[in-house]
Backbone:
């Protein structure tokens, strides 16, 4: 699957999900469904959504039974209406039933994230601002969730701690209280020597305009304005304009919702990070429906 971590990673995620769901075996299916019964089923969007995760669903059935046919009927990132058929799967009925719930869970979760990401990105499309996710992801599923964010039309912030320097409030709280500005200046000078511009981005989080002025003097690549009002964002944009060459990008974070994101974009933010893209999202409603005429061998 394109842009979704590496193959080994998502194969491992699917394998773990199947072990979790099937356990030692599907006792109900193996008892009630004849082994020679074949069938076809459709995955249906119960509500309007942005499609994501069909390749993961295909991998689910591949691991359950390599002879199953999985045919995608929609593109990743395509917005579909209620009732749209997303994919069709054919093979042994027992195998289809064993993979059903895990496949639906993956498509539902990832399509829910993609749908949410599209809603946020569309809200600020006219401003040219970049909407990004955070590290607020489900443990072990970050690569899939961040793939879904991209599929929906938003972007990814860092995926892990080794990708960039991001000095947050707790880092600053651990700094020496006396001579804090001098300490940070020396630390940032050392960072720049170790990580020249273009090699690794350096970002610092601030919560007030006074801290923002201090951060400007450190000349990071990005300054994150955390939990600040749009009016203060505008003031920060004006102050940034006086910083001259290599003025940092401004990232806004904290309390961003669909109802207020346009105000932050209009205030002049370059980047808006939204934890809700991944940690506060409702799964899309998906169903897998057997096609009666295609069930054979009962």
Residues:
């Amino acid at each position: 699957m394109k842009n979704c971590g590496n193959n080994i990673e998502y194969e491992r995620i699917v394998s773990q999900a199947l072990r979790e769901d099937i356990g030692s075996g599907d006792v109900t299916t193996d008892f009630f469904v004849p082994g020679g019964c074949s069938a076809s089923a459709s995955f249906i969007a119960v509500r309007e959504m942005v499609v994501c995760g069909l390749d993961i669903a295909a991998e689910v059935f591949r691991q359950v039974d390599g002879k199953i046919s999985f045919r995608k009927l929609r593109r990743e990132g395509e917005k579909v209406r209620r009732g749209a058929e997303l994919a069709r799967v054919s093979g042994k009925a027992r195998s289809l039933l064993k993979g059903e719930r895990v496949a639906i869970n993956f498509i539902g979760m990832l399509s829910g994230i993609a749908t949410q990401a599209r809603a946020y990105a569309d809200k600020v499309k006219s401003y040219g601002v970049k909407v990004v996710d955070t590290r607020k992801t489900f443990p072990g599923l970050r690569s899939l969730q961040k793939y879904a964010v991209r599929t929906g039309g938003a972007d990814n912030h860092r995926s892990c701690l080794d990708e960039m320097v991001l000095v947050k409030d707790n880092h600053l709280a651990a700094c020496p209280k006396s001579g804090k500005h001098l300490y940070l200046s020396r630390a940032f000078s050392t960072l720049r020597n170790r990580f020249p511009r273009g090699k690794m981005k350096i970002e610092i989080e601030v919560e007030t305009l006074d801290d923002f002025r201090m951060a400007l003097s450190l000349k990071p690549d990005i300054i994150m304005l955390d939990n600040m009002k749009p009016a203060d964002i505008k003031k920060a944009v004006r102050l940034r304009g006086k910083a001259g060459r290599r003025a940092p990008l401004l990232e806004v974070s904290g309390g961003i919702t669909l109802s207020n994101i346009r105000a932050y974009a209009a205030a002049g933010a370059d980047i808006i990070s939204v934890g809700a893209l991944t940690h506060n999202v409702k799964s899309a409603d998906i169903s897998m429906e057997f096609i009666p005429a295609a069930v054979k061998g009962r």
In short: The two ends are 35 Å apart (CA to CA). The first strand starts at residue 38 and ends at 45. The first helix runs from residue 7 to 22.
